[in-house]
Amino acid sequence: MAMSYFLLVYNKVHGALETVQQFADRDEAARAYTATERAAHGSPALEIVLIGADSLDTIRQTHGQYFAARSGQSEYLKAIADTQKAAPVPAG
């Protein structure tokens, strides 16, 4: 299967994927990535990634954190928060 390139823009504040663009050409994908990074002006709220894969389904499996429906937190972050809640607070 041919390689495709997927440009994802994820908003960390809203916990939501804003855009997904698919490219067949690696150079075109790299130019789009650079333009998107520049347009974001280094915003800490946005995570911009360019991933090569055979399909979007593969990326959903390998990078599911960008696609999971959630209310602001990933299952991983929820597990960390639960662990911290369960840990005893040191007396001090």
Question: What topology does this entry show?
Answer:
Blueprint: E1 4-11, E2 16-23, H1 26-40, E3 46-53, H2 56-62, H3 75-86
Antiparallel strand pairs: 1-2, 1-3
- Helix and strand content put the structural class at alpha+beta
What distance separates the N and C termini? 60 Å
Poorly predicted runs of 5 or more residues = none
Q: What count of helical segments does DSSP give?
A: 3
> How much of the sequence is in beta strands?
25-35%
Tell me, rounded to a whole number, the average pLDDT: 82
What overall geometry do the principal axes of the alpha carbons give? flat
Can you walk me through this structure?
It is flat and about 35 Å long. The chain has one domain (4-86). The chain has three helices and three strands. The N and C termini lie far apart (60 Å). The model has no long low-confidence stretch (mean pLDDT 82). Helix content is 37%, strand content 26%. The chain has 92 residues and is an alpha+beta fold. A hairpin with a 4-residue loop joins strand 1 (4-11) and strand 2. It has a three-stranded antiparallel sheet.
